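Hi all, a correction to my earlier message: I attached the wrong file for GntR family transcriptional regulator. Here's the right sequence:
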Amino acid sequence: MSDQSGEALSLLPLNEANPTPLYLQLQQSIEEAVRKGALKADAALPGERDLAKQLGISRVTVRKAITGLVQKGVLVQRWGSGTFIAQQMRLEQPLSRLSSFTDDMLARGLKSSAVMLSQSTGPASTDELMALGLSPGDRVSRVNRLRLANGIPMAIENAVLPSRVLPDPSLVQQSLYAVLHEKGFMPARALQRLHAVLLNEEQASLLGVPPQSPALYIERRSFTATGEMVEFTSSYYRGDAYDFVAELTISQPDRMHNDDT
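and the right structure:
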């Protein structure tokens, strides 16, 4: 953690007589200050040395408290700049509706944006052939992006499409589905698989979280109304910012059973 200096924080006093470890007391004090609005999003914390001096505790204790809050998503460390209060954003995403990231954010009143990581075309790999049901020698277009909401990194999206559907990946600047709609390949349904993963260093750096942070990995295969597969996308969604919600209905029996008959 950077040792930048900063103004003294107004935090609850720590009590060495309290059986709760000092690092946990410090975590609770910072979280309480965030909840009450005393610490605003993007506010910088004092440096490790300054905070330890202010509270009369060791730098090791401060470091342990800060590390735990970074892992919980309360704080974010920007290497070379310091430690800051994280933007507290959490989104619910229904699993029963197919929509684009751009439309999802617009419906929530948020501004969506994308950082283009790479675009390419070429022969489909073995995995891409299987994912899209293509034949050997078929070509694909690849669009890899970092998706943001109000400037906050939320997901890494890696989309692969048959070249007949998207011959030029540079056409995708914001919404992939808007481009597909214009070309007559708008998805009408999709199959999704998801499971929990831990982010590697590169993925974590892009999403602004520590390495080994939890995330949701989602694979989506999208089809047109005629059943043509037009998209295979693999995505990594921040585990501290997304909740995926599924609405379930109870299956009713064909007829009620009466034990008295």
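Sorry for the mix-up. The radius of gyration is 24 Å.
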